[in-house]
Write a structure and sequence with these properties.
globular; 5 strands; five-stranded antiparallel beta sheet; binds guanosine-5'-monophosphate; alpha+beta; HIT family, subunit A
């Protein structure tokens, strides 16, 4: 799957659409989801052009992967939800492709927390 330069997160990375940034470095941007599903709902995205988790895992440089994972952990800690720093827990979700119901085709993690999140999946979904 080729990367679509017109996707919403590409526009955010180019500064064409505003965002509420919580963390930024050379490789990563993290910002609040526009439609928050929990008190903490932050999206963590690589600055590189990767469509999905599998694309990122296969094609990102080690440096990008390390920076990305460290940033996601830092976001959880900064948001006060990381158990290792006294928080009550969180969930990371990476939707991929059609069955994963990925809406924006630029790889991202959802970091969700701040409330009881319930079980991971229901048997039937709409
Ligand atoms: P996906 O379904 O692709 O895993 O999640 C895409 C997420 O991007 C959704 O949770 C949606 O609310 C969020 N989103 C879509 N457009 C924007 C936007 O313009 N700004 C921000 N901050 N989040 C967005």
């Amino acid at each position: 799957m080729t990367y679509d330069d017109d996707n919403i997160f590409a526009k955010i990375l180019r500064g064409e659409i505003p965002n509420r940034t919580v963390l930024e470095n050379e490789h990563v941007l993290a910002f609040h989801d526009i439609s928050e599903q929990a008190p903490t709902h932050v999206l963590v995205i690589p600055k590189g052009k990767y469509v999905s988790f599998d694309d990122f895992a296969a094609n990102a440089r080690d440096e990008e992967i390390v920076a990305f994972i460290r940033a996601a952990g830092q976001v959880a800690s900064d948001e006060g939800v990381a158990p290792s720093t006294g928080g009550e827990g969180f969930r990371i979700i990476a939707n991929a492709g059609k069955n994963g119901v990925q809406e924006v085709p630029h790889f991202h993690l959802h970091v969700l927390g701040g409330r009881w999140l319930g079980r991971m999946l229901k048997k039937a979904e709409e």
